[in-house]
Specification:
CATH architecture: 2-Layer Sandwich
Order of helices and strands: EHEEEEEEHH
Shape: globular
CATH topology: Alpha-D-Glucose-1,6-Bisphosphate, Chain A, domain 4
CATH superfamily: START domain
Protein name: SRPBCC family protein
CATH class: Alpha Beta
Pfam family, one: Polyketide_cyc2
C-alpha cells in the first residue's frame, strides 16, 4: 500500500503571526488561498483547538469544475500558537498526519512548512497506484503557499539596534 511522507515549504515575507492567522482562517473555511485545490469546513470548533474536526475536500479539477472529490476528516492533535499545528486524519480518504510549522526568519518573514504523512484509504488506495499523488499534493501545496505569499503583506523590516549617536557618551 502507498504511503506518503512529503514536506513542502515556502519562505513568506509576512511575519509568523500573520501567517498563523491566515493558516487557521483557511482551515476554518476562509477559502482565500488554498482554493481552487482544497476547501476546509470546520465540524465542531476552531481548527486551532485540540480535538476540533475539520472536513477537507480535495478538488482534483478545481472548485466547481467537476472531477473527483477526495474527502477526509482531520482532528487537531496539537497546537502551539504561531509555531505548530498538527492534524490527524481520522476518517475518509486518508489516515495519517499533517503538521504545519512556522519559523521566524531574520528578515521578519516566516518559513512555513507542511509535512504530510499519510496512507490512502478505501477506494483512494486503488487510485493511488494509478495517479502520481505525491506530485499532485506537492503542486497543490506549493501553489497554495505561493497564493498565501501574494495575499499577505510583508512584515516590517527589523530595525537594527543603533548604538549611541556620535559624540554622545553613556
Amino acid at each position: 500500500m502507498k504511503k506518503y511522507d512529503l514536506v513542502d515549504e515556502a519562505l513568506l515575507a509576512a511575519g509568523p503571526d500573520a501567517v498563523w492567522e491566515a493558516l487557521t482562517g483557511e482551515l476554518a473555511g476562509g477559502a482565500r488561498w488554498w482554493v481552487p485545490d482544497n476547501t476546509f469546513e470546520p465540524v465542531n470548533g476552531a481548527p486551532d483547538q485540540v480535538g476540533a474536526l475539520t472536513r477537507v475536500t480535495v478538488h482534483t479539477k478545481g472548485v466547481d469544475k467537476g472531477g473527483k472529490k477526495i474527502r477526509f476528516t482531520a482532528r487537531t492533535a496539537a497546537v502551539e500558537p504561531g509555531r505548530r499545528l498538527a492534524l490527524a486524519y481520522v476518517e475518509g480518504a486518508f489516515r495519517g498526519t499533517a503538521e504545519f510549522t512556522l519559523a521566524p526568519l531574520d528578515d521578519g518573514g516566516t518559513r512555513l512548512a507542511m509535512r504530510f504523512r499519510a496512507q490512502p484509504h478505501g477506494a483512494l488506495a486503488v487510485l493511488a497506484n494509478l495517479v502520481d499523488m505525491d506530485a499532485n499534493h506537492t503542486r497543490a501545496t506549493r501553489a497554495a503557499f505561493a497564493r498565501l505569499g501574494r495575499l499577505l503583506p510583508a512584515a516590517p523590516a527589523p530595525t537594527a539596534s543603533a548604538g549611541p549617536a556620535p559624540g554622545v557618551s553613556l
